[in-house]
Amino acid sequence: MSKLLAGAAAAALLFQPAANAVHGGEATGSIAAAADISQYEKGDVNCDGQIKISDLVLLQKWLIGAGDSELNVSETADICEDGRVDIFDLTALRRLLLSKIKGLDKKAPVSELAPAMSGMGRSRIPVFAVEFPDYCEDTDFAEQVKQNCFGAEDKDESFYPLESVPAYFDRASYGKMYLECDVMSYRAKEPAETYVKNNSLGLAEEIMSEYAEKLDLSAYDANRDDILDSMVIIVPEKLLEMDNNGDKIPDWWPFSAKYYGSDTYDGVKLGSYCVIPYWRHDRAGTNSKIAHELCHAMGLTDYYGTNQETGSDIGSMSGSAGSELMDEGSGDLSAFSKLMLGWITEEDIQFYTGGEQSFTLNSSQQKPSCILIPRDSEKGLLGEYFVIEFITGEGNNSACFINGLRSTLFSKSGGVRILHCNAEISDGVFGKDYKYGINSPDYDKTDEKQRVVRLVNDSGMFYPGVRGLNYRDVIDSANEEFRWYDEEGGLTVDTGLKVKISELRPNPNYEPDPFSGADAWGGDERRLANDPDYLSGATYTITISQVGS
């Protein structure tokens, strides 16, 4: 085989599942990991007007005889235009796809922390459904985990938007992250209690040793640095009953850890790993915790505070406007998180640069959009700034779950929120870390001073909100949270700015149903919450100006 053909074959094999693995999160038409194209062009194998990962998988299956034999790919897949469809077209399609993933070639701000796992492009991780001699499941544990945690997107599923971890990340990243998960069974050699100490490191190393002989671990090294990006260890729910130190916190509560050892397994070093119990009656809770811990592997930190009286974690961003996966664990990731991960790129950010400026703000659940007010533009996204975003109760914000029961997170129309962010980086005990993260020595344990992100909105309600209930359409330094931090970390430095928020405006092309007017919905607020056509493409106008102007 020639070197060129061997390289093409390797590109094809890159998208094959690992041997002996139960594979979840296959590419489907719902994974929109590519840019729209304005006209028909080669590479759109399934002829839906887009080039995306599903086209690549479809062509690969067709080439190996596993796809639809009736598929007409003579025009759509002959990318090399040589009159035939072969492995060279597959390689060309892969190259074309990568070139169309916006921002893939740019480093995300969080890369300064050297996270084990990237949030950009294709990520492939192994998932191990682990049973122990003294803790076993009475079903096919790996198959159950695969179906309930790592399947395809299903908007009709009762646990949507937490029906699938890969689907959650696809929506959150606007298709910029494509997560594949190979789910495998593993039976630990020792009782569960043996592995509790040292963040279950012994269990992670045992699994790596076992599977180094069974798997090509380099398949889980996206950037080819000989470090396995991350892995997920799912353990039986019964382990939540274990509390050997009597602190009333389960010994097997979900966590994510970086590997700082030097051991390698078939030439690959472990990067990070997550351990999560499987709540069999709370699928949504399990998936939100998996997503949360994987965000740690990608470099995000916890946004919640710590209650000094009880020692327990508390959400730092209260109310409906404070919903965030990295805070209390509900809803979509905020614009701040998406900025750090590179999902909202420089082209999507509207920067306030001085004087009076007006901006049009779209829902960040519909498209990447936010406004940035920097304190020091030289520091960019790793400094102090305010982020203004419009969030709606759609997509990953469409529901939350309490003990497995579905509940509305907030009204579908949502509103505007302002986040005060400080993403400064400093040298931590184990390398670079957020200077004001909750585990940093620079963090103020009262939770009152500098922190990575805090909510500006009064009482955690949206701006402008419902009239009569915290309605405010102008925000200035009268709100303590809308002040810069001083040298001691206090919120005392006047921004000298005011932010004015307009009423929500529908898409200019919106045409109300004459038989379903405002009165039929019960007023404007009801219509906003119930009429999806009104909300689609709706915007706020945000005007930022100097106080006194």
Automatic annotation (TrEMBL):
Alphabetized GO MF terms: hydrolase activity, hydrolyzing O-glycosyl compounds; metallopeptidase activity
Record's keyword annotation contains Protease: yes
Alphabetical keyword list: Hydrolase, Metalloprotease, Protease, Signal
GO biological process per UniProt: polysaccharide catabolic process; proteolysis
Cited Pfam families: Dockerin_1
Sequence ranges assigned to domain Dockerin in this UniProt record: 38-106
First and last residue of the signal peptide: 1-21
Name the UniProt record assigns to this protein: M6 family metalloprotease domain-containing protein
Taxonomic source organism: Ruminococcus flavefaciens
